[in-house]
Specification:
Layout lengths: L1 H11 L5 H13 L11 E6 L6 H9 L5 E4 L4 H7 L6 E4 L3 H4 L6 H11 L7 E5 L4 E5 L5 E6 L4 H4 L2 E5 L14 H19 L3 H6 L8 H17 L3 H39 L5 E3 H10 L15 H9 L6 E4 L5 E6 L4 H7 L49
Parallel strand pairs: 1-6, 1-7, 2-3, 3-6
Antiparallel strand pairs: 4-5, 8-10, 9-10
Helix pairs in contact: 1-2, 2-10, 2-11, 10-11
């Protein structure tokens, strides 16, 4: 059964590794016994850019998991009322719009709900009904969360993490056509439920030996339980995938922390120089190395260089470009406005100071006293596109 499911998932999606394919297969199967699990692992599907297949992963999950609930943007109140004794499997796409710097105030509530729902018996309490009684709402439910860029650490720490990449030219997948793919995947889903249904009580009693500890063990235990129920090569494959993927994430966390430190140090250097529009690459590297409290002087074998800097910033979509400075001098340089999105996403406390004037690259100009700020050149009329303009201002 699991072999067929793995083949079907691999037919429509290119995952980052064979271990990732094994993990997704086991995660789908675990959704069918979540009513007896103690932990509901998250599946974090992250991609650096569009077109890496994260939404296709959710399409396949939607047709194979237990009672899917697909959403692009939802409120915590809706999820509170949907999760019950037999919870759905939450499939959340475009999570970057929920957890990004421009997210609404509900994002923190939703993050708390997703964090609490990783473990059984972690209800959310709300005042409810005409008598205003404190009421516990269950939060326990498996969830797959997909987005561009990194998800909050509190979510990835409770997740099996898939870091999607664009397909190579030689990597082929079958077209996902609902007319053909959905019946095939739904048939697998029904057979999966029929196989695992009678095994729920057995699964509830299982305490499998785990190759990892603490929260990683809690997250991966449901997947290992499924593998042990299946037998054959699956128990060994599941534990090998668990070790490989958790070690990769540990290394990724260390590298991510280093990259975040780099963003902060670069922000400090730009600020020290008066927030110019651009800094020459060599000047930026020299300033980083000169910081005695930073790790850059000892980075690599001979300290940070321009090549290292480009590699560290590549995942943020930041790279150097030719720039003409004063007196006609031209050099490779890093434009300050290329860092704004990365600062907002990964260093949100810097957002206020990372909002330069779009032309000068410096601090925004303060409007004259008692005069309303002038509309920027080329701005659209007030009101929705194609609609009526806003009301005229009266004197």
């Amino acid at each position: 059964m699991l072999d067929e499911l793995r083949a079907a998932i691999g037919k429509y999606v290119v995952l980052p590794s064979e271990e990732a394919l094994i993990a997704v297969t086991l995660w789908v199967a675990a959704s069918h016994i979540q009513t007896v699990l103690q932990h509901a692992p998250r599946l974090a599907v992250m991609s650096p850019t569009k077109g890496c297949g994260k939404s296709r992963v959710l399409d396949v999950l939607h047709e194979t998991v237990h009672q899917p609930m697909m959403t692009v943007n939802t409120s915590p109140a809706v999820i509170f009322r949907i999760i019950g004794k037999n919870p759905p499997t939450l499939l959340v796409d475009e999570a970057d719009t929920i957890f990004g710097p421009k997210a609404s105030g509900d994002s923190e509530i939703l993050r708390g709900l997703l964090n609490a729902g990783h473990q059984r018996n972690r209800p959310a309490w709300r005042i409810s009904g005409p008598e205003h009684k404190p009421t516990p709402y269950p939060t326990f439910a498996m969830a797959a969360i997909a987005g561009i860029g990194d998800l909050p650490d509190t979510i990835t720490d409770r997740a099996v993490v898939l870091r999607m990449q664009k397909r190579k030219p030689g990597e082929k997948v079958a077209p996902f056509r609902s007319r053909y793919a959905v019946p095939e995947l739904n048939a697998l889903r029904d057979r999966l439920a029929a196989w695992l249904g009678p095994l729920r009580s057995t699964a509830a009693r299982m305490v499998p030996p785990m190759p990892v500890e603490d929260r990683a063990a809690d997250t991966w235990e449901p997947l290992v339980i499924i593998a042990d129920l299946a037998g054959g090569q699956w128990p060994a494959s599941a534990r090998a995938a668990c070790l490989t993927m958790t070690r990769h994430e540990a290394a990724q966390d260390e590298q991510t922390s280093l990259k975040t430190r780099l963003l902060r140090d670069i922000h400090r250097i730009f600020e020290k120089e008066g927030n110019p529009e651009a800094l020459p690459t060599q000047d930026l590297v020299a300033a980083l190395i000169q910081d005695a409290d930073a790790p850059w002087a000892e980075y690599g074998t001979k300290g940070l260089n321009a090549y290292h800097l480009g590699n560290l910033l590549r995942d943020f979509g930041i790279g150097p470009a030719n720039y003409r400075f004063d007196k006609g001098r031209q050099a490779k340089a890093y434009m300050r406005n290329r860092f704004l999105d990365a600062w907002a996403r990964h260093c949100p406390d810097l957002v206020e100071t990372a909002s330069p004037d779009p032309v000068q690259g410096g601090a925004p100009a303060r409007p004259a006293h008692r005069l309303p700020p002038a509309a920027p050149t080329g701005s659209l009329p007030i009101g929705p596109p194609g609609g009526t303009p806003g009301p005229k201002r009266t004197r």
